[in-house]
Structure formats: structure tokens, C-alpha cells
Amino acid sequence: MTPLIKIRVWYAAFIVALFLSGITAFPLEWELSILNNYFGPETSFGQTYPSFSEWINRVYKGISETNNKFPFMAYGTDWLAFAHIVLAILFIGPFINPVKNIWVTQFGLISCVLVFPLAFICGSIRGIPFYWQLIDCSFGLLGAIPLLIILHLTKKTI
Fold first, then answer.
1. How many CB atoms lie within 10 A of CB 109?
2. How many domains does the chain contain in total?
3. pLDDT value, residue 16
4. Half-sphere exposure of 94 (CA within 13 A, CB side)
5. Element (DSSP H or E) covering residue 99
6. How far apart are CA 62 and CA 58, in angstroms?
7. Half-sphere exposure (Cβ direction) of 1: Cα atoms closer than 13 Å
8. Residue-level pLDDT, tens digit, the chain, 158 residues
């Protein structure tokens, strides 16, 4: 497999992941109801991991009650979804020409690094449990891995 094909495979996976993470921001209440049904306090999982299941239940109730009383608040997560989709589109340029658009890969890596301070600072301010902040940080880490591979392969082709 040529380096260009490897780069494009990694970009394709990254673009699909960004797009999927975007569209999952639309049906949050429905997704959380499923999580709450399987991992909430009333489940066997909830009996084993009570703090995690209580957090899932609290978030579900928060989203559900907010959507019932103030449905316009969900517009914020609609924009979050839109941003992920737009970012996925941004990576089509380097998919086509990785050398010319190497700056997009670098931008993506910087964005992945910035997930960490955002998660820890805003997470602490908003009362997000530390273990959930770590889950949020995992998205920055998981996003950086393919981008580092792409950057390495791109620099080899220059």
C-alpha cells in the first residue's frame, strides 16, 4: 500500500468518526434514555457502579427536563453537531492533497490537544465528575492518534 493510500485510509476513518460524532449530538435525549435504561441506578450495572449510573441518570433527567421546559436550549447541541460535520468536511481537502493541506492536519492536532484544558477547566467549573472529564479527554487522544500517523506519513512523502 502506498503512503498516499495509507494517508487517505486514515483520513477517511477520521472524517467518518467526526461526522458520526456530529450526528450523535442531535438525538441526545433519546441516546441518554437508552444509556439510562441499561446503565441507570435501577439496573444491575447501577448496583455495581452507583456513582457512574447516578451520573448517567442525572444527565438524562437534566436533558429531558430541559427539553420539556426549554426546548430551544437543545439548539446549542445542534450547533455542536453542525461544527463536527463542518470539521469533517474540512478534512476532505487534505484527503485529496495531504501535502498541500498539511496545515489542516496540524490544526486538527492542535484542536485535539486543546480538548484537555477545555475538559479539565470547564468540566471542573460545570461540576462534571473527574472520570467523565477523562472520558472527554479520550476523544482528544483518540483523534490525535490518526492525525499523528497522517502527519508522519505526509512528512515522509514531502
1. 17
2. 1
3. 98
4. 28
5. none
6. 6
7. 9
8. 999 999 999 999 999 999 999 999 999 999 999 999 999 999 999 999 999 999 999 999 999 999 999 999 999 999 999 999 999 999 999 999 999 999 999 999 999 999 999 999 999 999 999 999 999 999 999 999 999 999 999 999 98
pTM metric for this prediction: 0.91
Rg of the chain taking only CA atoms, in angstroms? 18
Residue 117 CA to residue 101 CA, distance in Å, equals 26
Residue 79, domain extent: 3-157
CA dist., res. 44 & res. 103, Å (int): 48
Residue 15 vs residues 85, 88, 119, 120: alpha-carbon distances, Å: 9, 5, 22, 26
C-alpha cell at 124: 471542573
**Residue 67 has what DSSP assignment?**
H
